[in-house]
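User: I want to check something. If I give you two sequences, will you return the structure for each one separately, not as a complex?

Assistant: Yes, each is folded on its own. Here is the first sequence with its structure:
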Amino acid sequence: RCDLYFTEFKNGNWTPVRNLGRPVNSAAYESLPSLSAEGDALYFTSNRKGGFGGLDLWVSYRKPDGHWGEPVNLGSTINTPFDEQAPFIHPDGQTLYFMSKGHRGMGAYDLFLSRKDEKGNWSSPENLGYPINSRGNEGALTVSLDGKTAFYASDMPGGFGKNDIYY
């Protein structure tokens, strides 16, 4: 089991680390969070009940009172019977990057993107392709504000260790 925790920077200091609690955390595995730029949506990985199999991507929206709402599975367009992990919601709030074993790819885990339309539906995931994806495992991608630079982990041949950071 893994839970999500948080701390806040107040008056020049970090507050004590606290468990995010229910309903985001459950008896299942919750990990790899990505907070929207506005701070109102928390995307994360979980194997909680109600998913499509393995690890799925979920989102919880912050309520007006500051508490987090019941997590919502991102659905079968994003999630597969295999594992999806490491969501990253771009600051534009409309572009989601993630790693998946279930969507068609080049290796075990590949990186994908999906865009949210005006109705809130996610587009069919697009494989980021070569040279980002390889026959190895790619994941944990973040993208710069201007969308021109991405940082991600990969175990592709030629690195310095098991997983290296590329951009």
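And separately, the second sequence with its own structure:
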Amino acid sequence: MSSVSVLVKQSKTDGTAAMVLAHNRLYGVGCKPDSRAAFNAVRLAARHGHPDGRRARIYLTAAGIGTKPDHPAAMDMLKELAKEDKFAALQLSLLDHVADEQRLAEAQPKLISSDPYIAIYPSLFSPAECKYLATISAPWLEEAKVTFDGGTPFAAMRDADSSAVSHLTEDLIVQRINRCIAAATGTQPRWGEPLNVLRYKEGQQYRPHHDGRGSGDGTTRIMTALIWLNEQFDGGETDFPSLNIRVRGGVGDMLVFRNVHDDGSQDDRLIHAGLPVSRGVKWMASRWIRGAEFLG
């Protein structure tokens, strides 16, 4: 009996097993990716009363993953859950403080380079949003990995701690942040890989690399978005060595650069590094954007 078959059986009575099954179904672990089956597993976990299942059902409903998108229904469920779930209540209280269309329209990108394209959006995200991303990610931080075609080793090239916000934990605040990133970059929200939160302590860095590489499935990451979540640190600039460009943003600033040429081939001028932090701790959020839907 396959591991997925075992989980299917266990999920009938176990909410935790149902959530593991949802993850495996969504990302194709031991099976073909199936977002509808993932949503059904989440719904089953919610019926068992599993707290993560109850939240994930709201998130997938809002995003339209495995089901028809229904933001009003998701908001109604969030309001109901907030009566007994402190984390849901926190989300509800912060939703009025996240990026909206007006702020996006008012944010004028500052062009750093036209060819290749590099631009920064000053103060696109509020300090509250930035603090929220760092807070929800902190408990799950682990040594960052870099994926290569031959495997996923702990990378000597990046020694930060990181935490990815998966689709099952991508709450309505993170979804709005991701929609804002997509609108600013002229892409679609579903093209983005899960938002990644990074913490660099003193001496930590990300050595020169290219973001178009390493997605593991042959799909090209056409753009990168980086958001500064704090500014209480020295060093840590984003460095493009072949372009003689170094960038340091403030809280809520977003750096965007295009990783490919117009014909879709990789632009090696976009090899970049996160220089070592010399004082304090640097918090960043990154989103790699593909040219097609991440979940397929």
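Because they were folded independently, the notes below concern the second chain alone. The CA atoms of residues 10 and 200 lie 39 Å apart. Residues 148-154 have pLDDT under 50 and may be disordered.
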